[in-house]
Design brief:
It is globular and about 70 Å long. 38% of the residues are buried. It has one domain: Alpha-Beta Barrel (TIM Barrel). It starts with a strand and ends with a helix. It is α/β, with parallel strands linked by helices. It is built from 11 helices and 8 strands.
Length: 214
């Protein structure tokens, strides 16, 4: 089974994709909120709106200078609803916070840029790990290769940790990750639209439509 998530806080885009019935929920972070003209103060309103729009799961990122600050803020975010999964970064303080948060609910460790980072994240008992595929590519690393290595390590260790791959740029990347066993992906509406831009498929659809209506 594959779970798809909308990587956007733009309400029109999120609504359009959730209405398909094919997406499980929405992922956010401070950069995604900023791109849509939102700030951290808008998180509660956005969570309630996304839930009403049909999101079964909403990811919200916590922050802070210490593990305690990160965990305390994350616990406050959890009060927004039972469909909240809190996110922390793959810093030392973030992973320490993840260990605490994992005892009381689901938690995702984000901003992962190296396969080796999966080791402390598995030890934290986090629910999800979010490697940034496209950003790794931009930094000179093979994002798909790093995620494959992460998935191999999880499988070999028998860990329940799930990969939720982000920063995806093309449907081909998503396909390659599915081959590696990745079952959770989050991407922008533009990547979703790219699944349906195949010229050969479009030509067949037009042909079938013409034949059916003659």
């Amino acid at each position: 089974m594959v779970s798809l998530f909308v990587d956007s806080a733009n309400r029109a885009d999120v609504t359009r994709l959730l209405k398909t019935g094919l997406f499980t929920g929405v992922t956010t972070n401070p950069a995604i909120l900023d791109k849509s003209g939102l700030t951290s103060r808008d998180i509660p309103d956005f969570v309630h709106w996304a839930t009403d729009a049909g999101a079964k799961q909403v990811f919200v990122q916590s922050w802070g200078k210490t593990a305690n600050e990160i965990a305390e803020r994350a616990e406050r975010f959890r009060l927004l609803g039972p469909n909240i999964t809190v996110k922390v970064t793959a810093s030392l303080e973030g992973i320490i916070a993840a260990k605490s948060l994992a005892q009381t609910g689901s938690v995702l460790v984000t901003a992962v840029y190296s396969a080796a980072q999966v080791i402390p994240i598995m030890a934290s008992d986090a629910t999800f790990i979010a490697p940034f595929v496209g950003r790794m590519d931009a930094g000179g690393r093979s994002g798909v290769a790093e995620v494959r290595s992460i998935q191999l390590a999880i499988d070999a260790a028998g860990s329940p940790l799930q990969v939720l791959a982000g920063s995806l740029r093309t449907p081909q990347q998503i396909l390659e990750l599915a081959h590696a066993g990745v079952r959770n992906v989050t991407f922008s509406p533009s990547v979703w639209d790219a699944f349906f831009n195949d010229e050969m498929t479009a030509a067949s659809v037009d042909q079938f439509e013409q034949l059916a209506t003659t």
